[in-house]
Amino acid sequence: MPVGYSIYVDRPSYVHHQLDPRTKLAALGAIFVLALAFNHPAVLGGLVLLVLVVGRLAQVGWRSMAPFLAGSVWFLVLGVVIWPLYVQGGPDLFTVAGQSITLNGLLFGLAMGLRVALMVTAAGVWMMTTSPQKLTVGLLHLGLPYKAGVAMTAAIRFVPLLNAERATIAEAQQARALDLRQGNPLTRVLKSVAIIGPLFIRAIDVAQGLALAMDARGFAARDSRTSIVELRLTRADRIIMYSLLGASILAVVLRLLGIGLITRNYL
Amino acid sequence: MLDGQAAIEISDLVFRYVPSGPEVLRGVNVRVETGEFIALIGQNGAGKTTLAKHFNGLLKPSSGTVRVLGRDTRSAPVADLARTVGYVYQNPDHQIFAQRVRTEAAFGPRNLGLGQAEVDRRVDAALALVGLQDFADEFAFSLGRGQRQKLAVASVLAMEPPILVVDEPTTGLDQAGSRGILDLLSRWNADGRTIVAITHDMTLVAERVPRTIVVNDGRILADGPTRQVLSDTALLRTAYLRPPQATRIAQRLSDLGVAADTLTVTELYTQMSRLLGRGG
User: Fold this and answer.
1) pTM (2 d.p.)
2) Which residues of chain B have pLDDT under 70?
3) Cβ distance of B58 and A198 shorter than 8 Å
4) Which of A34, A83, A155, A266 has most Cβ atoms within 10 angstroms of its Cβ?
Protein backbone atom coordinates (compact mmCIF):
# COMPACT_ATOMS: atom_id res chain seq x y z
CA MET A 1 0.00 0.00 0.00
CA PRO A 2 1.48 3.35 -0.95
CA VAL A 3 2.01 5.32 2.20
CA GLY A 4 4.73 7.65 1.13
CA TYR A 5 7.55 8.46 3.45
CA SER A 6 6.20 7.43 6.83
CA ILE A 7 7.52 5.19 9.56
CA TYR A 8 4.72 2.75 8.73
CA VAL A 9 6.25 -0.55 7.65
CA ASP A 10 4.00 -2.91 5.77
CA ARG A 11 4.18 -6.44 7.14
CA PRO A 12 1.85 -9.36 6.46
CA SER A 13 0.60 -9.47 10.05
CA TYR A 14 -2.81 -9.74 11.66
CA VAL A 15 -2.27 -6.47 13.48
CA HIS A 16 -1.42 -4.66 10.24
CA HIS A 17 -4.18 -5.91 8.00
CA GLN A 18 -6.97 -7.69 9.88
CA LEU A 19 -7.37 -5.33 12.80
CA ASP A 20 -9.49 -2.29 12.04
CA PRO A 21 -7.61 1.02 12.36
CA ARG A 22 -10.34 2.16 14.76
CA THR A 23 -9.51 -0.77 17.03
CA LYS A 24 -5.84 0.16 16.95
CA LEU A 25 -6.65 3.78 17.73
CA ALA A 26 -8.81 2.60 20.64
CA ALA A 27 -5.90 0.45 21.82
CA LEU A 28 -3.57 3.43 21.79
CA GLY A 29 -6.15 5.49 23.70
CA ALA A 30 -6.60 2.69 26.26
CA ILE A 31 -2.82 2.41 26.75
CA PHE A 32 -2.70 6.13 27.49
CA VAL A 33 -5.53 5.79 30.04
CA LEU A 34 -3.74 2.84 31.67
CA ALA A 35 -0.42 4.70 31.63
CA LEU A 36 -1.96 7.61 33.50
CA ALA A 37 -4.12 5.50 35.85
CA PHE A 38 -1.26 3.58 37.44
CA ASN A 39 1.96 4.84 38.92
CA HIS A 40 3.50 1.57 40.07
CA PRO A 41 6.58 0.59 38.07
CA ALA A 42 5.60 -3.10 38.06
CA VAL A 43 2.27 -2.35 36.37
CA LEU A 44 3.76 0.13 33.91
CA GLY A 45 6.73 -2.13 33.19
CA GLY A 46 4.32 -4.98 32.51
CA LEU A 47 2.39 -2.80 30.09
CA VAL A 48 5.62 -1.83 28.28
CA LEU A 49 6.36 -5.54 27.86
CA LEU A 50 2.82 -6.08 26.59
CA VAL A 51 3.30 -3.37 23.95
CA LEU A 52 6.62 -4.92 22.89
CA VAL A 53 4.98 -8.34 22.62
CA VAL A 54 2.19 -6.92 20.44
CA GLY A 55 4.89 -5.24 18.35
CA ARG A 56 6.68 -8.55 17.90
CA LEU A 57 3.40 -10.29 17.01
CA ALA A 58 2.99 -7.61 14.34
CA GLN A 59 6.47 -8.55 13.07
CA VAL A 60 7.97 -5.21 14.06
CA GLY A 61 11.70 -5.74 14.58
CA TRP A 62 13.41 -5.07 17.91
CA ARG A 63 15.61 -2.64 16.04
CA SER A 64 12.64 -0.56 14.99
CA MET A 65 11.24 -0.43 18.53
CA ALA A 66 14.52 0.13 20.34
CA PRO A 67 14.84 3.86 19.46
CA PHE A 68 11.53 4.57 21.19
CA LEU A 69 12.72 2.84 24.35
CA ALA A 70 16.14 4.46 24.12
CA GLY A 71 14.53 7.86 23.72
CA SER A 72 12.74 7.35 27.01
CA VAL A 73 15.89 6.53 28.95
CA TRP A 74 16.48 10.19 29.77
CA PHE A 75 13.04 10.44 31.32
CA LEU A 76 13.81 7.33 33.32
CA VAL A 77 17.07 8.81 34.58
CA LEU A 78 15.52 12.21 35.31
CA GLY A 79 12.56 10.56 37.04
CA VAL A 80 14.78 8.50 39.29
CA VAL A 81 16.94 11.52 40.12
CA ILE A 82 14.20 14.07 40.76
CA TRP A 83 11.12 12.30 42.11
CA PRO A 84 12.70 10.81 45.27
CA LEU A 85 13.16 14.41 46.47
CA TYR A 86 9.38 14.88 46.43
CA VAL A 87 7.93 11.45 47.06
CA GLN A 88 8.54 9.92 50.48
CA GLY A 89 7.38 6.63 51.87
CA GLY A 90 8.51 3.08 52.50
CA PRO A 91 11.91 2.27 53.98
CA ASP A 92 14.67 4.89 53.94
CA LEU A 93 17.48 3.87 51.61
CA PHE A 94 20.12 6.56 52.05
CA THR A 95 20.57 10.28 52.60
CA VAL A 96 21.70 12.86 50.07
CA ALA A 97 22.54 16.34 51.37
CA GLY A 98 20.25 15.99 54.35
CA GLN A 99 17.39 14.65 52.25
CA SER A 100 16.44 11.05 52.90
CA ILE A 101 15.77 8.99 49.83
CA THR A 102 13.06 6.41 50.24
CA LEU A 103 12.21 3.26 48.32
CA ASN A 104 8.84 4.67 47.25
CA GLY A 105 10.53 7.77 45.88
CA LEU A 106 12.81 5.69 43.69
CA LEU A 107 9.95 3.43 42.57
CA PHE A 108 7.82 6.44 41.71
CA GLY A 109 10.64 7.98 39.67
CA LEU A 110 11.08 4.68 37.88
CA ALA A 111 7.34 4.59 37.23
CA MET A 112 7.35 8.07 35.71
CA GLY A 113 10.13 7.05 33.32
CA LEU A 114 8.28 3.86 32.42
CA ARG A 115 5.12 5.87 31.85
CA VAL A 116 6.88 7.94 29.20
CA ALA A 117 8.46 4.81 27.73
CA LEU A 118 5.04 3.15 27.59
CA MET A 119 3.31 6.04 25.84
CA VAL A 120 6.16 6.65 23.40
CA THR A 121 6.65 2.98 22.55
CA ALA A 122 2.91 2.39 22.16
CA ALA A 123 2.62 5.39 19.85
CA GLY A 124 5.64 4.12 17.89
CA VAL A 125 4.28 0.60 17.48
CA TRP A 126 0.90 2.07 16.61
CA MET A 127 2.41 4.27 13.87
CA MET A 128 4.51 1.41 12.52
CA THR A 129 1.51 -0.91 12.24
CA THR A 130 -1.27 1.45 11.16
CA SER A 131 -1.24 2.62 7.57
CA PRO A 132 -1.96 6.37 7.51
CA GLN A 133 -4.34 5.76 4.65
CA LYS A 134 -6.43 3.24 6.61
CA LEU A 135 -6.30 5.42 9.68
CA THR A 136 -7.82 8.31 7.76
CA VAL A 137 -10.62 6.11 6.47
CA GLY A 138 -11.20 4.85 10.00
CA LEU A 139 -11.48 8.39 11.30
CA LEU A 140 -13.82 9.33 8.46
CA HIS A 141 -16.10 6.49 9.60
CA LEU A 142 -15.98 8.01 13.07
CA GLY A 143 -17.40 11.23 11.64
CA LEU A 144 -14.26 13.26 11.00
CA PRO A 145 -14.65 15.68 8.05
CA TYR A 146 -12.44 14.33 5.30
CA LYS A 147 -10.46 17.53 4.90
CA ALA A 148 -9.45 17.28 8.55
CA GLY A 149 -8.66 13.59 8.01
CA VAL A 150 -6.31 14.42 5.18
CA ALA A 151 -4.67 17.17 7.21
CA MET A 152 -4.04 14.67 9.98
CA THR A 153 -2.53 11.96 7.81
CA ALA A 154 -0.48 14.57 6.00
CA ALA A 155 0.92 15.66 9.35
CA ILE A 156 1.90 12.07 10.20
CA ARG A 157 3.38 11.59 6.75
CA PHE A 158 5.44 14.77 7.05
CA VAL A 159 7.17 13.89 10.31
CA PRO A 160 9.86 11.75 8.65
CA LEU A 161 10.07 14.10 5.68
CA LEU A 162 10.76 17.10 7.88
CA ASN A 163 13.19 15.05 9.89
CA ALA A 164 15.13 14.37 6.70
CA GLU A 165 15.01 18.10 5.93
CA ARG A 166 16.33 18.85 9.40
CA ALA A 167 19.24 16.46 8.87
CA THR A 168 20.11 18.09 5.54
CA ILE A 169 19.95 21.58 7.06
CA ALA A 170 22.13 20.52 9.98
CA GLU A 171 24.68 19.17 7.49
CA ALA A 172 24.60 22.35 5.43
CA GLN A 173 25.21 24.47 8.53
CA GLN A 174 27.94 22.19 9.87
CA ALA A 175 29.62 22.63 6.50
CA ARG A 176 29.63 26.34 7.36
CA ALA A 177 31.52 25.53 10.55
CA LEU A 178 28.50 25.51 12.84
CA ASP A 179 29.61 23.40 15.79
CA LEU A 180 26.63 22.19 17.78
CA ARG A 181 28.77 20.21 20.19
CA GLN A 182 30.51 23.20 21.72
CA GLY A 183 29.34 25.98 23.98
CA ASN A 184 27.05 26.18 26.99
CA PRO A 185 23.36 25.22 26.74
CA LEU A 186 22.31 28.82 26.04
CA THR A 187 24.70 29.35 23.13
CA ARG A 188 23.71 25.95 21.79
CA VAL A 189 20.06 27.01 21.76
CA LEU A 190 21.04 30.21 19.96
CA LYS A 191 23.05 28.17 17.47
CA SER A 192 20.07 25.97 16.71
CA VAL A 193 18.31 29.01 15.23
CA ALA A 194 20.46 28.34 12.16
CA ILE A 195 18.69 25.00 11.83
CA ILE A 196 15.18 25.85 13.02
CA GLY A 197 14.94 28.92 10.77
CA PRO A 198 15.42 27.14 7.44
CA LEU A 199 13.35 24.21 8.74
CA PHE A 200 10.34 26.48 9.26
CA ILE A 201 10.71 27.99 5.83
CA ARG A 202 11.03 24.53 4.29
CA ALA A 203 7.96 23.31 6.21
CA ILE A 204 5.90 26.22 4.92
CA ASP A 205 7.24 25.64 1.41
CA VAL A 206 6.37 21.97 1.53
CA ALA A 207 2.90 22.70 2.89
CA GLN A 208 2.25 25.27 0.17
CA GLY A 209 3.44 22.87 -2.49
CA LEU A 210 1.22 20.12 -1.15
CA ALA A 211 -1.80 22.43 -1.03
CA LEU A 212 -1.24 23.54 -4.61
CA ALA A 213 -0.72 19.99 -5.85
CA MET A 214 -3.93 18.88 -4.13
CA ASP A 215 -5.95 21.80 -5.48
CA ALA A 216 -4.58 21.09 -8.93
CA ARG A 217 -5.92 17.56 -8.70
CA GLY A 218 -9.37 18.64 -7.61
CA PHE A 219 -9.19 18.08 -3.88
CA ALA A 220 -12.41 19.05 -2.09
CA ALA A 221 -14.30 19.42 -5.36
CA ARG A 222 -17.14 17.43 -3.81
CA ASP A 223 -18.55 17.21 -0.33
CA SER A 224 -18.05 13.50 0.04
CA ARG A 225 -15.70 11.06 -1.54
CA THR A 226 -15.24 7.37 -2.07
CA SER A 227 -12.31 5.42 -0.77
CA ILE A 228 -10.33 2.53 -2.16
CA VAL A 229 -9.98 1.20 1.37
CA GLU A 230 -13.09 -0.57 2.70
CA LEU A 231 -13.26 -1.08 6.43
CA ARG A 232 -15.35 -3.58 8.34
CA LEU A 233 -15.38 -4.15 12.08
CA THR A 234 -15.06 -7.88 12.62
CA ARG A 235 -16.08 -9.91 15.65
CA ALA A 236 -12.48 -9.87 16.83
CA ASP A 237 -12.41 -6.06 16.57
CA ARG A 238 -15.54 -5.82 18.72
CA ILE A 239 -14.18 -8.21 21.33
CA ILE A 240 -10.89 -6.32 21.50
CA MET A 241 -12.64 -2.95 21.72
CA TYR A 242 -14.93 -4.10 24.53
CA SER A 243 -11.92 -5.54 26.37
CA LEU A 244 -10.04 -2.27 25.96
CA LEU A 245 -13.03 -0.32 27.24
CA GLY A 246 -13.33 -2.74 30.15
CA ALA A 247 -9.61 -2.43 30.92
CA SER A 248 -9.81 1.36 30.87
CA ILE A 249 -12.82 1.46 33.21
CA LEU A 250 -11.17 -1.08 35.50
CA ALA A 251 -8.00 1.03 35.55
CA VAL A 252 -9.93 4.13 36.58
CA VAL A 253 -11.78 2.18 39.30
CA LEU A 254 -8.48 0.75 40.60
CA ARG A 255 -7.06 4.24 40.61
CA LEU A 256 -9.96 5.48 42.72
CA LEU A 257 -9.50 2.52 45.05
CA GLY A 258 -5.77 3.25 45.26
CA ILE A 259 -4.64 -0.07 43.78
CA GLY A 260 -1.55 -0.24 41.59
CA LEU A 261 -0.20 3.01 42.97
CA ILE A 262 2.95 4.10 44.77
CA THR A 263 1.32 7.27 45.99
CA ARG A 264 -2.03 9.03 45.64
CA ASN A 265 -0.44 12.44 46.01
CA TYR A 266 0.81 12.61 42.43
CA LEU A 267 -0.71 11.55 39.13
CA MET B 1 51.11 23.96 1.19
CA LEU B 2 53.46 21.00 1.14
CA ASP B 3 54.85 19.82 -2.15
CA GLY B 4 53.27 16.66 -3.46
CA GLN B 5 50.40 16.83 -1.00
CA ALA B 6 47.06 16.30 -2.69
CA ALA B 7 44.08 18.53 -1.89
CA ILE B 8 41.94 15.45 -1.58
CA GLU B 9 43.24 11.91 -1.63
CA ILE B 10 40.85 9.00 -1.50
CA SER B 11 41.98 5.41 -1.38
CA ASP B 12 39.82 2.31 -1.55
CA LEU B 13 36.83 4.18 -0.18
CA VAL B 14 33.89 1.94 0.58
CA PHE B 15 30.78 3.43 2.12
CA ARG B 16 27.53 2.00 3.48
CA TYR B 17 24.80 4.15 5.01
CA VAL B 18 23.89 1.31 7.36
CA PRO B 19 26.53 -1.17 8.55
CA SER B 20 24.88 -4.25 7.03
CA GLY B 21 23.39 -2.36 4.08
CA PRO B 22 24.49 -2.22 0.46
CA GLU B 23 27.74 -0.54 -0.55
CA VAL B 24 26.89 2.88 -1.93
CA LEU B 25 30.53 3.55 -2.80
CA ARG B 26 32.44 0.47 -3.82
CA GLY B 27 36.17 1.06 -3.83
CA VAL B 28 36.79 4.62 -4.96
CA ASN B 29 40.28 5.96 -5.64
CA VAL B 30 40.65 9.62 -6.50
CA ARG B 31 43.45 12.12 -6.14
CA VAL B 32 42.68 15.80 -6.54
CA GLU B 33 45.63 18.15 -6.78
CA THR B 34 45.62 21.61 -5.30
CA GLY B 35 44.23 24.17 -7.75
CA GLU B 36 42.29 21.71 -9.90
CA PHE B 37 38.74 22.30 -11.15
CA ILE B 38 36.86 19.02 -11.37
CA ALA B 39 33.37 18.03 -12.45
CA LEU B 40 31.68 15.01 -10.90
CA ILE B 41 29.07 13.66 -13.28
CA GLY B 42 26.81 10.62 -13.23
CA GLN B 43 23.15 9.74 -13.23
CA ASN B 44 20.92 10.31 -10.18
CA GLY B 45 21.76 7.83 -7.45
CA ALA B 46 25.20 7.04 -8.90
CA GLY B 47 26.91 8.16 -5.67
CA LYS B 48 28.16 11.64 -6.58
CA THR B 49 26.78 13.42 -3.54
CA THR B 50 27.71 10.54 -1.25
CA LEU B 51 31.27 10.79 -2.54
CA ALA B 52 31.33 14.58 -2.24
CA LYS B 53 30.08 14.43 1.35
CA HIS B 54 33.25 12.51 2.19
CA PHE B 55 35.35 15.49 1.12
CA ASN B 56 34.34 17.55 4.16
CA GLY B 57 33.78 14.69 6.56
CA LEU B 58 29.97 14.84 6.59
CA LEU B 59 30.24 11.15 5.83
CA LYS B 60 33.09 9.00 7.09
CA PRO B 61 34.39 5.99 5.15
CA SER B 62 33.14 2.52 6.13
CA SER B 63 36.58 1.40 4.97
CA GLY B 64 39.44 3.01 3.10
CA THR B 65 40.67 6.53 3.77
CA VAL B 66 39.86 10.08 2.79
CA ARG B 67 42.59 12.65 3.34
CA VAL B 68 42.01 16.37 2.96
CA LEU B 69 45.29 18.26 2.71
CA GLY B 70 46.86 15.25 4.36
CA ARG B 71 44.40 15.09 7.23
CA ASP B 72 42.35 11.93 7.73
CA THR B 73 38.67 12.97 7.79
CA ARG B 74 37.84 10.22 10.26
CA SER B 75 39.67 12.01 13.03
CA ALA B 76 38.40 15.51 12.15
CA PRO B 77 35.04 17.02 13.10
CA VAL B 78 33.02 18.54 10.25
CA ALA B 79 33.06 22.00 11.82
CA ASP B 80 36.89 21.87 11.75
CA LEU B 81 37.15 20.55 8.21
CA ALA B 82 34.82 23.37 7.17
CA ARG B 83 37.83 25.69 7.41
CA THR B 84 39.50 23.72 4.65
CA VAL B 85 36.58 22.48 2.60
CA GLY B 86 33.59 24.66 1.78
CA TYR B 87 30.46 22.77 0.77
CA VAL B 88 27.59 24.46 -1.02
CA TYR B 89 24.32 22.58 -0.86
CA GLN B 90 22.07 22.03 -3.80
CA ASN B 91 19.10 23.86 -2.30
CA PRO B 92 19.93 27.31 -0.86
CA ASP B 93 16.80 27.09 1.29
CA HIS B 94 18.53 24.42 3.34
CA GLN B 95 20.90 26.99 4.75
CA ILE B 96 19.49 30.52 4.52
CA PHE B 97 18.17 31.57 7.92
CA ALA B 98 19.36 35.11 8.57
CA GLN B 99 17.16 38.12 7.85
CA ARG B 100 19.68 40.12 5.87
CA VAL B 101 21.90 39.00 3.03
CA ARG B 102 24.97 40.34 4.84
CA THR B 103 24.24 38.46 8.07
CA GLU B 104 23.72 35.24 6.15
CA ALA B 105 27.05 35.57 4.37
CA ALA B 106 28.76 36.41 7.68
CA PHE B 107 27.54 33.24 9.41
CA GLY B 108 30.38 31.00 8.20
CA PRO B 109 33.24 33.44 8.86
CA ARG B 110 31.83 34.20 12.34
CA ASN B 111 31.78 30.48 13.10
CA LEU B 112 35.46 30.44 12.18
CA GLY B 113 36.01 32.90 15.00
CA LEU B 114 37.24 35.77 12.83
CA GLY B 115 37.20 39.37 14.03
CA GLN B 116 34.51 41.80 12.88
CA ALA B 117 36.81 43.67 10.46
CA GLU B 118 37.96 40.47 8.78
CA VAL B 119 34.38 39.14 8.63
CA ASP B 120 33.25 42.37 6.95
CA ARG B 121 36.11 42.28 4.48
CA ARG B 122 35.39 38.69 3.48
CA VAL B 123 31.63 39.20 3.28
CA ASP B 124 32.05 42.27 1.07
CA ALA B 125 34.49 40.42 -1.17
CA ALA B 126 32.27 37.34 -1.45
CA LEU B 127 29.11 39.33 -2.14
CA ALA B 128 30.96 41.35 -4.78
CA LEU B 129 32.25 38.16 -6.38
CA VAL B 130 28.74 36.77 -6.83
CA GLY B 131 27.30 40.16 -7.78
CA LEU B 132 25.14 40.65 -4.71
CA GLN B 133 26.98 43.68 -3.31
CA ASP B 134 23.97 45.91 -3.90
CA PHE B 135 21.70 43.50 -2.02
CA ALA B 136 23.76 43.28 1.17
CA ASP B 137 21.07 44.89 3.30
CA GLU B 138 18.07 43.25 1.60
CA PHE B 139 15.96 40.54 3.17
CA ALA B 140 17.56 37.22 2.31
CA PHE B 141 14.22 35.54 1.72
CA SER B 142 13.02 38.21 -0.70
CA LEU B 143 15.78 37.29 -3.17
CA GLY B 144 14.86 35.29 -6.25
CA ARG B 145 15.90 31.67 -6.73
CA GLY B 146 19.04 32.51 -8.71
CA GLN B 147 20.09 35.16 -6.22
CA ARG B 148 19.51 32.84 -3.27
CA GLN B 149 21.75 30.30 -4.99
CA LYS B 150 24.41 32.98 -5.38
CA LEU B 151 24.00 33.94 -1.73
CA ALA B 152 24.49 30.30 -0.73
CA VAL B 153 27.70 30.22 -2.74
CA ALA B 154 28.83 33.58 -1.37
CA SER B 155 28.20 32.50 2.22
CA VAL B 156 30.62 29.62 1.71
CA LEU B 157 33.13 31.65 -0.35
CA ALA B 158 33.26 34.14 2.53
CA MET B 159 34.90 31.41 4.59
CA GLU B 160 37.65 31.43 1.95
CA PRO B 161 38.22 27.68 2.01
CA PRO B 162 41.11 26.40 -0.11
CA ILE B 163 38.84 23.62 -1.38
CA LEU B 164 35.27 24.21 -2.51
CA VAL B 165 32.65 21.53 -3.19
CA VAL B 166 29.46 22.62 -4.94
CA ASP B 167 26.55 20.20 -5.27
CA GLU B 168 24.59 20.91 -8.44
CA PRO B 169 25.11 24.64 -8.32
CA THR B 170 22.97 25.22 -11.42
CA THR B 171 19.83 23.26 -10.53
CA GLY B 172 16.74 25.37 -11.08
CA LEU B 173 18.68 28.21 -12.64
CA ASP B 174 18.21 29.51 -16.17
CA GLN B 175 21.10 29.49 -18.62
CA ALA B 176 22.26 32.97 -17.61
CA GLY B 177 22.16 32.05 -13.92
CA SER B 178 24.02 28.78 -14.51
CA ARG B 179 26.70 30.56 -16.53
CA GLY B 180 26.99 33.21 -13.83
CA ILE B 181 27.70 30.54 -11.21
CA LEU B 182 30.17 28.69 -13.43
CA ASP B 183 31.97 31.96 -14.32
CA LEU B 184 32.24 32.64 -10.63
CA LEU B 185 33.68 29.20 -9.93
CA SER B 186 36.18 29.64 -12.77
CA ARG B 187 37.34 32.96 -11.32
CA TRP B 188 37.63 31.44 -7.85
CA ASN B 189 39.62 28.56 -9.33
CA ALA B 190 41.91 31.01 -11.17
CA ASP B 191 43.05 32.19 -7.72
CA GLY B 192 44.57 28.77 -7.14
CA ARG B 193 41.72 27.24 -5.18
CA THR B 194 40.52 23.70 -5.70
CA ILE B 195 36.94 23.21 -6.90
CA VAL B 196 34.83 20.09 -7.19
CA ALA B 197 31.44 20.63 -8.83
CA ILE B 198 28.68 18.04 -9.02
CA THR B 199 26.58 18.73 -12.07
CA HIS B 200 24.32 17.39 -14.79
CA ASP B 201 25.05 20.23 -17.18
CA MET B 202 27.33 18.68 -19.82
CA THR B 203 27.51 21.88 -21.84
CA LEU B 204 28.89 23.87 -18.95
CA VAL B 205 31.31 21.08 -18.01
CA ALA B 206 32.56 21.00 -21.59
CA GLU B 207 33.09 24.75 -21.66
CA ARG B 208 34.63 25.36 -18.26
CA VAL B 209 35.92 22.32 -16.43
CA PRO B 210 39.32 20.79 -17.31
CA ARG B 211 38.92 17.42 -15.56
CA THR B 212 35.87 15.20 -15.36
CA ILE B 213 35.13 12.21 -13.16
CA VAL B 214 32.25 9.91 -14.05
CA VAL B 215 30.64 8.15 -11.11
CA ASN B 216 28.53 5.14 -11.89
CA ASP B 217 26.99 2.64 -9.51
CA GLY B 218 29.30 3.58 -6.65
CA ARG B 219 32.49 3.35 -8.70
CA ILE B 220 34.66 5.70 -10.71
CA LEU B 221 33.90 4.79 -14.30
CA ALA B 222 36.20 7.35 -15.86
CA ASP B 223 38.56 10.05 -14.65
CA GLY B 224 40.51 12.24 -17.03
CA PRO B 225 40.67 15.35 -19.16
CA THR B 226 37.14 16.56 -19.92
CA ARG B 227 37.76 16.39 -23.67
CA GLN B 228 38.64 12.74 -23.50
CA VAL B 229 35.86 11.74 -21.10
CA LEU B 230 32.99 13.68 -22.66
CA SER B 231 33.76 12.56 -26.21
CA ASP B 232 33.72 8.86 -25.28
CA THR B 233 30.12 8.19 -26.21
CA ALA B 234 30.25 4.46 -25.50
CA LEU B 235 31.66 5.02 -22.03
CA LEU B 236 29.14 7.70 -21.20
CA ARG B 237 26.31 5.46 -22.36
CA THR B 238 27.33 2.87 -19.73
CA ALA B 239 26.73 5.58 -17.15
CA TYR B 240 23.45 6.60 -18.82
CA LEU B 241 24.95 9.93 -19.84
CA ARG B 242 25.25 11.67 -23.19
CA PRO B 243 28.04 13.87 -24.55
CA PRO B 244 27.25 17.58 -24.93
CA GLN B 245 25.15 18.48 -27.95
CA ALA B 246 28.07 20.04 -29.83
CA THR B 247 30.05 16.80 -29.41
CA ARG B 248 27.13 14.68 -30.64
CA ILE B 249 26.78 16.84 -33.75
CA ALA B 250 30.55 16.74 -34.32
CA GLN B 251 30.55 12.94 -34.10
CA ARG B 252 27.73 12.70 -36.64
CA LEU B 253 29.81 14.90 -38.93
CA SER B 254 33.06 13.04 -38.35
CA ASP B 255 33.21 11.62 -41.91
CA LEU B 256 33.29 15.22 -43.10
CA GLY B 257 36.45 15.66 -41.06
CA VAL B 258 35.03 17.22 -37.91
CA ALA B 259 37.01 16.11 -34.85
CA ALA B 260 35.08 13.59 -32.74
CA ASP B 261 36.34 15.19 -29.55
CA THR B 262 34.88 18.60 -30.31
CA LEU B 263 33.36 19.90 -27.08
CA THR B 264 31.86 23.32 -27.57
CA VAL B 265 29.74 25.21 -30.06
CA THR B 266 32.65 27.58 -30.70
CA GLU B 267 34.98 24.70 -31.59
CA LEU B 268 32.32 23.20 -33.82
CA TYR B 269 31.74 26.55 -35.52
CA THR B 270 35.45 27.07 -36.19
CA GLN B 271 35.78 23.64 -37.82
CA MET B 272 32.62 24.03 -39.85
CA SER B 273 33.75 27.43 -41.12
CA ARG B 274 37.01 25.91 -42.23
CA LEU B 275 35.22 22.99 -43.95
CA LEU B 276 32.89 25.36 -45.74
CA GLY B 277 35.86 27.35 -46.92
CA ARG B 278 35.15 30.44 -44.88
CA GLY B 279 37.57 31.99 -42.43
CA GLY B 280 40.11 29.75 -40.67
Assistant:
1) 0.71
2) 1-4, 279-280
3) no
4) A34
